[in-house]
From TrEMBL:
Residue spans crossing the bilayer: none
Broad class of where this protein is predominantly found: cytoplasm
Source organism per UniProt: Sulfurimonas sediminis
Reaction(s) this enzyme catalyzes, per UniProt: tRNA(Arg) + L-arginine + ATP = L-arginyl-tRNA(Arg) + AMP + diphosphate
Protein name per UniProt: Arginine--tRNA ligase
Aminoacyl-tRNA synthetase as UniProt keyword: yes
Secretion signal, residue range per the UniProt entry: none
GO biological process, one term: arginyl-tRNA aminoacylation
Amino acid sequence: MKQRVSALLREKIGREVVLEKPRDRSFGHFATPIAFSLAKELRKSPMVIADELASSFEESEVFSKVEAVKGYLNFRLSEDFLAEYASWALENPAEFAKQEKNQKILLEFVSANPTGPLHIGHARGAVYGDTLYRLAKHLGYDITAEYYVNDAGNQIDLLGLSIQLYARDHLLDETVEYPESYYRGEYLDALARDAMEKFGREIFYDASRQKELALWAKDEVMKIIVKDLGDLNIFFDTFVYESTLYADWGRVMQKMGDGIYEKDGKLWIASEAKGDEKDRVVVREDGRPTYLAGDIVYHNQKFERGYDHYINIWGADHHGYIARVKAAIEYLGYDSNKLEVLLSQMVSLLKDGEPYKMSKRAGNVILMSDIVEEIGADALRFIFASKKSDTALEFDLAEFKKQDSSNPIFYIQYAHARIQTLLSKATVSKEDIANASLKNLGENADTLLFDALLLPEIIEDAFNTRQVQKLTDYLKSLAASLHKFYYDVRMIGTEDEAKLLKLMLMVALSIKTGLSLMGIAAKDKMSKEEA
């Protein structure tokens, strides 16, 4: 709807026009302050310009009313326009709210170390990234979801050592001395048992085979990670392994030219000159590359693949890392503005008002899989998408196990199921409903129809601003409007039954489409426990 109105104004005025939605719906569906922008150019007051523009739309079939109010132009869409758009959407549900954007995007998210199962901090970035991915896909972007597997460096070596020590301690009944840093948690038990079956107990005593054990184990952990993400309805198009990148370090280093220099036996990137706090080491005295070196090679590879835009979703603790990576991109000869880094804050979890206990299976974190098991994937996805990703998130599991309006995902699912129940009680045929006119429904019904048809604007706004919570807010609002309408208006058996049920179908389509963009399937009926 907004695109259609924008196109009409662009044709009429010859320039792009900012459209707003008035808080008070009595002013209309859309408004614009364009007259104020034109005042200086046309040498007229905004009020005069607004009056002239309003009168020029008197014959438009799109608007039932265009009004000038103190220099603003207010637009009310016509019943014919809304009815035609709703009928098209219901006839083409798979195309509703879709667009065709001509841009290739590479989206990297999660990228947790393959040394243990995902915790709830990883879950937040995973849900955020996957929801952005789904929004972009729906809008027609050519977008790739990528997982960068950090399978090199000390953390992988430490995984091998941790399994050796765990096996000797728990499976072979030895007394072992643990170092200050090591991985812990019951997930190591399955790894140790499988390793014993595959390699024999000797591998737990042979320090020279620690790397072999670690490389096998990180692949097994990746299987756990992929399964846990799949349980949350999150899937990746590509995986890039850090361990495969370092063979290209020499070429990439040459490509960076004077961005790399030697000092004190180390190689440094001159990142301070590009806005970083200081220069950074990329190769240590012993020749081992730092984590940053891997990231430099990885981002060079990304840019060589020729995407139009690159989005990374990182944990908030990586904020200081942005400048050094962008510095490397500049030295590589690319435009660092093409890289967009979005930060995801940590999560505080409560249960009945008390801090949630850490998982025994993970050792010192709360596992994502534990929360999915307790409240379900739908609730977890909705919670983690319901607040700006760069702000702190605290929630109580108990709230999302309630089967009432205080639980937003229940409330939205119940709205969709309620519509399906209404349709099952219809005394008119599906053909009657499909052919019904959506005119002369009354103000409340017109408002509900307009709200249901707003989904395309919500999707585009949520993606463009990178604020996926705008979609959750919209769905909560639409569900509330539906429930109120249901209680206020009798539908079955009335003269307007067919057209009212067609309105219900439009609301259901928006709810179903919106939920699907969050990786959630809409329910046609609630279980006895949920009803």
